[in-house]
Amino acid sequence: MSEHEARERATLDTVKRAQDTPDERQPYAELGMKLDEYDRVREILGRRPTSSELAIYSVMWSEHCSYKSSKVHLRQFGTKAPKSEALLVGMGENAGVVDIGDGWAATFKIESHNHPSYVEPHQGAATGVGGIVRDIMSMGARPIAVMDALRFGAADAHDTRRVLPGVVEGISHYGNCLGLPNIGGEVVFDPCYIGNPLVNALCVGLLRKDQIKLATAPGPGNKVVLFGALTGPDGIGGASVLASATFEDESHAKRPSVQVGDPFMEKLLIECCLELYQADVVVGIQDLGAAGVSCATTELAAKGTGGMDVRLDLVPLRDPSLRPEEILMSESQERMMAVVTPDDIDAFMAICAKWDIPATVIGEVTDGGRLVMTWHGETIVDIPPGTAADEGPVYERPFHEPAGQAALNADDPARLPRPEDLRATLLQLLGSPNLASKEWVTSQYDRYVRGNTVLAQPADAGVLRISEIMPGAEETARGIALSTDGNGRYARLDPYAGAQLALAEAYRNVAVTGATPLAVTNCLNFGSPEDPEVMWQFAEATRGLADACKTLGVPVTGGNVSFYNQTGSTPIHPTPVVGVLGVIDDVAGRVRSGFTAPGQKVLLLGETEEEFGGSEWAHVAHGHLGGLPPKADLEAERALALVLTEAASRGLLTGSHDLSDGGLAIALAESALAQGIGATVVLPDGDAFVELFSESSARALVTVDPESFDAFAELCAANELPCQCLGTTGGDALVVENVLEIPVAELRETHTSTLPGIFG
Amino acid sequence: MSAARVGVVTFPGTLDDQDAARAVRHAGGEAVPLWHADPDLKGVDAVFLPGGFSYGDYLRCGAISRFAPLMEELIPAARAGLPVLGTCNGFQILCEAHLLPGALMRNAGLHYVCRDQGIRVENTATPWTSDFAEGQEIVLPVKHGEGRYVADEATLNALEAGGQVVFRYVGGNPNGSLNDIAGIRNEAGNIVGLMPHPEHAVEDLTGAPSTDGRGFFSSILKKLVTL
């Protein structure tokens, strides 16, 4: 034994040593644990934890892994969930799974990587993509597309020029190298995100309905295999340090906490996992994300027979000096853990070898009810796994309405001066960073790879064809549609309505492509849960979203909560981002975005009220945020979606676009920009400014062939959906009679020059 | 008559192999998967080297792939006249393997670019372009970070003089390629490399808003049938 090894052995904190030294002071506070949490660990174990056990409990009980502040509110997504026959796997697994028909299922989830993306934009965003892709893989699915919901500070702010290009490059490099088409998402600018950008990454996967994999370790004697990248000192403590603490001034000191991604390894892992599933040699599987080996072993064991023996010294290392505590907390990327029967282990290893994937048996499933880990023969962990995985602390955090909320809501935008020149206002909005073309960002993403992309950005929703994704799917004509949406300004004014409006918009975006919305994932981005005003926003938003899901009949299948998004004591706008997945029975019947041919009737569906609270106009023209957001009329949304999907399936629509930020004016402009086809329209009676720029929800613009008009109007009438014919497509200008006329070329110049002007 | 057999190569990190195989099938050919580690061309009549990030492209793009066991078979076969098409990473591999002259460097704009790109077909004397008309303008997607074609002046002059420039960008050069070069061929004409992606432009429903990529596959299949 070398001197080094001898010293290491002497300082190893074994279970025996923990029993012998009950009073040794332990750094629980430095690991982010409260005293009462630490005391509970001692109570569970009947002794002080070893340093390895403390590492496990500290990461597993962190906000990020345990949802300790959000759990009591998230329960509503289950208790209020609408009955849905489509839901195959709900919340609590790596990702939800939805039946999309013909024997196929889709799994999808959105997750945040906000704090790492501020510290190190490129790697933070890249590993955000990597992490969500592995969640989808671990359900037994082939990942088939990604999208990203991004929020940055003001577009022209100095730090945005550091953060945005890095984030986009990270997503671009990682996603492109993986060969996953990026089919949509959002880019939103608001000063509230300057010190805390939001990077929410979504992935969707496809699998046969009867081949869902779960994170479970049943069957005593089965082998536990760690495979993928080697373990290094990446992101040690990332889960508890980065995700659960606010940034203060020394954030650069945390640079090493951000993990570094290797998309090439992840691509090999995808193909390797699919071959393992095909060969049916996997009993249970879990990806290694936040909390790495700690999370994978405790969760697998807790959901299986209840026990697992692990030889931690067998974990293959990139840095041989890593200590057991560090191995347990390492967040090295591109790793998976599988449970494999002894009979299948050779076949499993052969497939890994084919893909050059390192794979190591590090343990065995037991029925002892304990997770036991050894380090060169010494026992360093001996815990009931469920206490770490499922029985973390649960907090009922106090909450109350923010002090200035009533005054904010009373500050009605009706007091703002209205513009005289509506043409100038339209161009001002169209060229503003939030509404301008996002091509500078999206042209850095591969939207075509794998050849199944039917619609991608800037379409309202991404749409994929199923039939050619995997062998055996040839017979299905179906497609899936996905959209993410969220509006922090609406949620700031009224978090209950804001969350509902986010769902309503994603739901509508899916419906305008002709797809039927089926299920929901969400990423709830908020400030500190220890601030009762933030907690009120969170409580209101979750209540609003759960109620809306019930009304619209779409269950939440999973998602992620990101707290502590604030700079100092100033939180971001509450930003619930909602993803909706829909199914279209015949994907060839999808409806394309905007004006797709001349001579089509342009129809406005839904009702327009005077609603400017939190609107893009108030934001751009006056820097104003006050009043109340648009009313979330969910029954109207439902009727609108019904009409849109029914009309699409009957082939009545030649184009469509939802109305949202910037109202009818922006919807008309974007529709004209889609294929460079103009239109001449007449506004409904009323105030032209209100008709053009109000942001009332539950509205859409569609085009129909004149021959289909009567049939479509009948369908609207039958569903009590207001439908007004505004005019006809054609020409090379957008003409709103008696109000404005703008050549499409001028619209395009205004729309496309903003982001390149800022970011180069 | 059995269908013409077009090999589609998969390296670790290849991404567009599924698309390439589908395009071959849609055109009526048989797509034969070829594996990088297996030095066996399986008697195919032509080879498609698809895009991606082979071996992660952590070194120069394509620099490692050229040493793959399969390439030991492919390089001499190509020199002997086997029709080979390399797109994107496949083009980079052909240059690294010295089957085509020149090199592909980082885009002038320093960003990865995915867009639908205008291309002019400059030369139809290859088995992959015979169904196009000379001077025909088509639309294909480009999607790459390292697509700026460079070569020394003598090589460029020889390419231009010998009709070896097969495709040129029109309506804007996405990457700063010299002479707007999007694709080239070898002297014999059997080996063609280009940055754009014909395999993403073969269907109405999916991919780029163009089906101009079909010409590549109809060209090679006709050639193989009449061989």
Automatic annotation (TrEMBL), chain A:
* Molecular functions per Gene Ontology: ATP binding; magnesium ion binding; phosphoribosylformylglycinamidine synthase activity
- Keyword Cell inner membrane assigned to the entry: answer is no
Which domain of life does the protein's organism represent?
A: Bacteria
- What does the entry list as the binding residues for Mg(2+) 1? E111, N560
Please tell me where substrate binds in this chain. S112, H113, N114, H115, R134, Q259, E331, S332, Q333, S562
Q: Which residues form the active site?
A: H64, H113 (proton acceptor)
* Region: Disordered, residue numbers: 1-25
Pathway where this protein functions: Purine metabolism; IMP biosynthesis via de novo pathway; 5-amino-1-(5-phospho-D-ribosyl)imidazole from N(2)-formyl-N(1)-(5-phospho-D-ribosyl)glycinamide: step 1/2
Q: Where is the Phosphoribosylformylglycinamidine synthase linker domain?
A: 25-68
Q: What processes does the entry annotate via GO biological process terms?
A: 'de novo' IMP biosynthetic process
Q: Which residues bind Mg(2+) 2?
A: D135, D287
Q: Which reaction does it catalyse?
A: N(2)-formyl-N(1)-(5-phospho-beta-D-ribosyl)glycinamide + L-glutamine + ATP + H2O = 2-formamido-N(1)-(5-O-phospho-beta-D-ribosyl)acetamidine + L-glutamate + ADP + phosphate + H(+)
Q: Which positions fall inside the PurM-like C-terminal domain?
A: 220-375, 598-732
- PurM-like N-terminal domain location, by residue? 92-206, 460-584
Q: Which family does it belong to?
A: Belongs to the FGAMS family.
Q: Supply the HAMAP family for this chain.
A: PurL_2
Complex and partners: Monomer. Part of the FGAM synthase complex composed of 1 PurL, 1 PurQ and 2 PurS subunits.
The protein's role, per its UniProt record: Part of the phosphoribosylformylglycinamidine synthase complex involved in the purines biosynthetic pathway. Catalyzes the ATP-dependent conversion of formylglycinamide ribonucleotide (FGAR) and glutamine to yield formylglycinamidine ribonucleotide (FGAM) and glutamate. The FGAM synthase complex is composed of three subunits. PurQ produces an ammonia molecule by converting glutamine to glutamate. PurL transfers the ammonia molecule to FGAR to form FGAM in an ATP-dependent manner.
Name of this protein: Phosphoribosylformylglycinamidine synthase subunit PurL
User: Which organism does this sequence originate in?
Assistant: Streptosporangium carneum
